Amino acid sequence: MNRSSSSFSNIDSRQSAIGNPPPTYNLWTIGCQMNEADSRHLASQLEALGFVETKRAEDADVAVLNTCVVRQQPEDKAVRKLTSLGGIKGSHRPGMIIALMGCMVGKREAEDLAERFGFVDVFMAPSQTDALIDFIVRHDAYSHLKKSQAELADYRLPVVNQDKAITAFVPITLGCSHVCSYCVIPHRRGPDRSRMPEEVLREVRALARQGIKEVNLLGQIVDRYGFDLDDGVNLAWLLREVAKVDGILRVRFLTSHPAYMDEELIRAVAETEKVCPYIEMPFQSGSDRILESMRRGYTQAEYRDIISNIRKFMPNASINTDVIVGYPGETEEDFLETMKLAEELRLDLFHIAKYSPRPRTLSAKMRDDVSAVEKERRRTALDELTKKINAEKSAQLLGQTVEVLVEAFQEKKKRWRGRTPHNKLVFFESDTDCLGQLVNVKINWTGPFSLIGTASEC
Ligand code: SAH
């Protein structure tokens, strides 16, 4: 489906009838894929109302910040951005609507935030974008855009034709109930709950009709999908169902938690061709003492066993992980256990974060006793080790032919960008339009984070 035809044509004619330029929105997003999905959802709702995107927040009629507070750094960035928008609104754009969404906005924070940022018109908890739409349709300046809420209610992701997206994010488990000691997410996103399978499948079918080729099923602990639904509805089942949708070539899911990575799920991934052999499963620390304090619910030996089990069914599975360095009380010995685990397991990609105390979490009550300098030293040491492992693993692909789903054309470098089923980034040149195609690429250069090769025809 093309965005300029069918469902959007009524909006175009309405705008030309009243002769006004369409109102504009700007959406600034930081953080995880879940935020990315929420932003795309909101963008689609705004576009259904007749808004068009503008690249500059300062020019927008509606400016939205979708925030992340998982660590102090992204929170500081959002506050800087918000303060500058407030300045613009105060000095020369009084009619600008400013909305704040994402994990900065929890139930308990709303009042505080309203006091701190009086210029913000709408506060929206994560995944709850309707508040802004309600505000706009009730706003005098936009009454001519009024569209029935019923039409907007389940309206997701028509943005595909705008940025020619090939991949889409589909949240399936919202919130999180695990309450790891360090993590603010459950406090901001609430307890975990599954979306209904029919709703998820309807969305995936709609995405496929719009040209999406790959879906990423999302959840903080995505493998808890269905725990609150009927018997038999779980992630393993859903993966097989999503893979049956015509037009979808690849299915991925993230993030996994070791406690839920059972054999049924591993088999579903291994046996379903369209489901990529790709798993994101954070271990966070290699020290049992730290894992216990983190309330992760597994030991490093158990984590190793799960990795062995995954590799038993999928010897070459690509496994990504998150690690936190400098957690309260983490000694050099603890850190060396993390290094040892990283070295022995030889996983495919590491996201390394320096511990950052977060409000109302359990660990925030503990002394943040690893100095900033020491956290950075540990981060660098682990980063160097894992980069070396990544480079060695990538080098094994030299001379091999891999299947690449092509996601975009890089104008600057005049080359196509895509990913292998194992989620390795691949670049290649071709004069034909390869967007959205599966292309076989023979690899002739490898780096720790990307590969370059020559394509057979696409
Ligand atoms: N739900 C997923 C991901 C949560 S957030 C999970 O449970 O693994 C993504 C990553 O941010 C986490 O995996 C963790 O490595 C990191 N993170 C979360 N809280 C943090 C904190 N307080 N300080 C530093 N890193 C943190």
Descriptive account of the structure:
By secondary structure, this protein is an alpha/beta fold. The protein folds into four domains: 5-151, 3-Layer(aba) Sandwich (Rossmann fold); 166-276, Transcription Regulator spoIIAA, CATH 3.30.750.210; 289-394, Transcription Regulator spoIIAA (2-Layer Sandwich), CATH 3.30.750; 401-455, Nucleic acid-binding proteins (OB fold (Dihydrolipoamide Acetyltransferase, E2P)), CATH 2.40.50. 37% of the residues lie in helices and 21% in strands. It has 15 helices and 18 strands. It has helices spanning 9-18, 33-49, 72-92, 110-116, 130-138, 149-153, 160-163, 185-189, 197-209, 235-243, 263-271, 288-294, 300-313, 332-345, 372-395, and strands at 24-29, 52-53, 62-67, 97-102, 122-124, 167-171, 173-174, 193-194, 214-218, 250-254, 278-280, 318-325, 349-354, 401-410, 415-419, 425-429, 438-446, 450-455. The strands form five sheets. A five-stranded parallel beta sheet has the order 2-1-3-4-5, sandwiched between helices. Strands 14-15-16-18-17 form a five-stranded mixed barrel. A three-stranded parallel beta sheet has the order 6-9-10. Strand 12, helix 14 (332-345) and strand 13 (349-354) form a beta-alpha-beta unit. Helix 10 (235-243) runs parallel beside helix 11 and helix 14 (332-345) runs parallel beside helix 15. The longest helix is centred in the last third of the chain and has 24 residues, at 372-395. It is globular and about 60 Å long. Bound molecules: S-adenosyl-L-homocysteine. S-adenosyl-L-homocysteine is lined by residues 70-71, 176, 182-183, 185, 220-221, 255, 257, 282, 284, 322, 324, 353, 355-356, 358.
